[in-house]
Amino acid sequence: MTANSDATNEATGAIARATARRQRLALAALLAGALSIAFAPIFVRLSELGPTATAFWRLTFALPALFAWMRLEGGGAYARPAGWADYLRLSVPGLFFAGDLAVWHWSIHYTSVANATLLANFAPIFVALASWLLWGERFTRTFLGGLALAIAGAAVLMSRSLNLGLDTLFGDALGLLTAAFYAGYILSVGKLRARFSTAALMAWSGVVTALALLPVALLSGEGLIAGTAWGWGILLALALFSHAGGQSLIAYALAHLPATFSSVSLLVQPAAAAVLAWLLLGEALGPFQALGALVVLAGIFLARRGSR
Questions:
Q1: Per residue in 263-302, pLDDT tens?
Q2: What is the pLDDT of residues 1-56, one digit of tens each?
Q3: In the structure, how many helices (H) and strands (E) does the chain have?
Q4: What is the CA radius of gyration of the chain?
Q5: What's the rounded Cα separation, in Å, for the pair 154 and 126?
């Protein structure tokens, strides 16, 4: 009996250690993905095309790499899409992501970039609210404190350029809608990753996103053809580095980490983007903004401590 108990305890300990290793790897992938996406605003700023056309090429150029990856990995432990029901499931995150990109780009037309970016990063609030309403998830006070601290840090980080008022109300509302779309994307990816591989999920949802963005870009009157090789290179870098690389790392992490904590951790993105804009584009980063970035990191650390 003792031998059986020892064997059971050892097996349980081995499973716990393996789970902890997977979670550490997933956390590293999540942060690496957030840092990769932090380059996206830099690429968008350098793009020769309009924001929606740039988003379209971001998906379109990423698809060959994603489908090649899916073919190389085979089925493995995950199901391959089979039948319209699976493709319908995989279209859900694609539509949410298309809404996120399109609405955020429209919000920039009606409010400041800082307002649009800050409000779009309220996604963790919507993720937590949906997790509570739909699945009855409960949160510790430590996690909620970390969430509040991270969002406050993001607000401090962008405070220099914030412009709140009635004239920006419509654009600000679009910024909040962007956050809701991204929350839907995070939650749907988190659920689907239990069934489909990262490559399959990113590839098939990416097809839906690209198809949804194309008419939006055409209706907005944006050109779809870059004028120089440099312009095409920027679009290719955005597609392969920020999307195929960054978003795929986040999708991988969502299979092993709670969606609520993951959404808070993604707030490292605006902090990293501010630092990159300072280093690469010469945009000033004052001590107050640097403090905001540190507050974001402290909030993420606190949320991790409070995550079940």
A1: 888 888 777 777 777 777 676 667 877 888 889 889 988 8
A2: 555 565 555 656 666 677 778 888 998 999 899 888 888 878 888 899 988 899 99
A3: 14, 0
A4: 20
A5: 16
- Tokens for 225, please give them: 């053809």
Length of the chain: 308
CB-facing half-sphere around the CA of 219: CA atoms within 13 A: 7
Question: What phi and psi, each to the nearest 5 degrees, are found at residue 20?
Answer: -60, -40
Domain positions in the chain are 24-305
Side chain identity at 37, as an amino acid letter?
A: I
For residues 289 and 274, the answer to whether their CB atoms sit within 8 Å is: yes
> Quick one: which of 66, 79, 77, 167 has its CA closest to 115?
167
As given in the structure block, the two tokens for residue 19 are 């789970």
Burial class (CB in 10 A: 0-12, 13-18, 19+), 230: exposed
Q: Which amino acid makes up residue 163?
A: N
